[in-house]
C-alpha cells in the first residue's frame, strides 16, 4: 500500500501515459513530490493554457494521451481555451485537477469552486475521486475513455487528502478490444454512390489524414473520379512530396461554397458536414449545396482507417495507383517582407520530416500553396478556433518527436495569448523555430468586422483591433526568456534567419515585420468580392480561387 499520489503516477505509467504538462499549486504538492520516484516526464508551464495546449500537441504527434496537472477550478479555467481546441481536435487527453481536501470544502475557502461544472465544458468524462483506494481504478477509466474511440478529453479531480492518504494500490490496464469497421451494408451503399457517375466529393477528417488514410482516399478518387477535400482545420495532416495532395476547404464560407458547388453527393469520412465558422447576416451557415446528398462512412467509435481501406476494396481500387504530390519548392523570395513571402521562404527551406504548428490566420493564407511539394511534413491546425494554440501545440509536438524540427507559425496577437510557451521551449531545449507574423493588428478581426455587416468603424472601434501602439517587441520578449531571436523586415533578412534556425537546431524566434494582407481598399472590397465569386459560373469561380491561392 502507498499514498494516492504515488499509486496514481504508477497507474498512469502502467496505462502508457508517460508525460505530464503541469502548473501545480498547493493541493497538488503530493503529486509533485511523488514525481521523484516516478519516470513520468514532467514539463512545467508558466500558464495553464500552455500546459493544456502542449498536451494537445503531444497527443496529435504521439497518438496517445499526455496528462495535465492543474490547480483547482481556477487553474482548469485558465486552460479551457486550449482544452476546447483539443476537444474539437478529438485527441486523447487526461486532466488531473487538484482540489481542496474533502473535509475542507465545507468552509468555502478563497479558491473553492465547482470544478466539475468547469470541467464539463470540455470533458466528456468527469469524476471526483473520494477515496484513496479508488484512485487507481478511476485513473485507468480516465485513460481508457480518453483513448476511446472516440478519443476525447477526460478530467479526474483529485482532492488533496485523497492524494496524501495511504492505502492506495497501483493497477494495470486491461486489454482493449479493437474497434469495429463500418458495416458491410454502409460500405456497399457508399461504394454504389461513388460508382454511380454522379458528381461526388469526399470530405476527409481527423483519423484518415495520415498516410494510410490519404493513400486509400486517393485510390478511391482515382478509381471513381470523386473529388477529395479535407477539413478546414485538420488535427494533423500529413502532406508533401510522395503523399496525396488533398485540397483543404476554405475558411471563408463563400469560398468553401465555391469549392462544393455542383456536387450531387458528399461522402464524409471521419468528418462533419461543413458549416461556416460564424453566422453572418444574409449568408448561409450550412455549406452543403442544395440537392447534395450526404453519406457518412464511419462513426466516431468505429475504425476509420480500416473502414476506408474496406471501401477501397468495395470500389475495386486495390490495384489503382494513388496520385502522389511530386517534389517541388518555390524560389527564395526577395524584397520587402510580406506574409506570402514568409510562406514562400518556408516552402523553399523547410527541412524533411518537419512539423508545422500553424496559427498564422490571414498572414499564412498562402502556406499550403508554397509547401505542398516540400519534403514530407505534418501540419497541425487551429481545430477549435480559440487563438493561443500554436506555441503550446509546438511544445507538445516537439516533446513527442524530439528528433523532428518544429515550426510554430503564429500571428502577433495570437502569440501574446500564450507567450509563456517560449520559456518552456527554452527550459526543455526544444528544436522549435517560432515565426511571429507581426502585422501589428488583429487582422482576422478587421476582416470579420467588414463581413458581419457592422456599421463603418470609427476610431474607437478600429483601436480595439490595432496592436501598433505600443508596438510589441518580440525579440526582447523572447530574449527575456532566454531564447535567441532576430527581427526581419526584408525577405533576404528573413531567409538568412530561417536558414540559420534550421541549420543550428534549438529554440529560435524570428519576428517577421509584415503588412496586413487585407487593409485599405482591399479590405473594403473583400466582402463584395467574396459575394460576387459565388455568383459566377462554378468553373470560372473555382479557377479564380485557385489563381488567388485562397
Q: Tell me the overall shape.
A: globular
Distance between the termini: 60 Å
What does the average pLDDT come to?
92
Helicity, in percent?
A: 25-40%
Please mark out the parts with pLDDT under 50 across 5 or more consecutive residues, or reply none.
Answer: none
Q: Give the helix tally.
A: 23
Structural class by SSE content: alpha/beta
Please tell me the total number of domains.
Answer: 3
* Proportion of residues in extended strands: 15-25%
Superfamily (CATH H level) name of the largest domain: Thiamin diphosphate (ThDP)-binding fold, Pyr/PP domains
Rg measurement, Å: 24 Å
CATH architecture annotation of the largest domain: 3-Layer(aba) Sandwich
CATH secondary-structure class of the largest domain: Alpha Beta
- Identify the strand order in the major beta sheet: 11-16-15-17-18-20-19
Mind summarizing the main beta sheet? 7 strands, mixed
Account of the protein in words:
The protein is an alpha/beta fold. The model has no long low-confidence stretch (mean pLDDT 92). It has three domains: 2-168, Rossmann fold (3-Layer(aba) Sandwich); 184-314, TPP-binding domain (Rossmann fold, 3-Layer(aba) Sandwich); 339-518, Thiamin diphosphate (ThDP)-binding fold, Pyr/PP domains (Rossmann fold). α14 (367-371) links the parallel β15 and β16 (377-380). The strands form four sheets. It has a seven-stranded mixed sheet with strand order 11-16-15-17-18-20-19, sandwiched between helices. α9 crosses α12 (304-314) and α11 packs parallel to α22. 39% of the residues lie in helices and 17% in strands. The radius of gyration is 24 Å and the shape is globular.
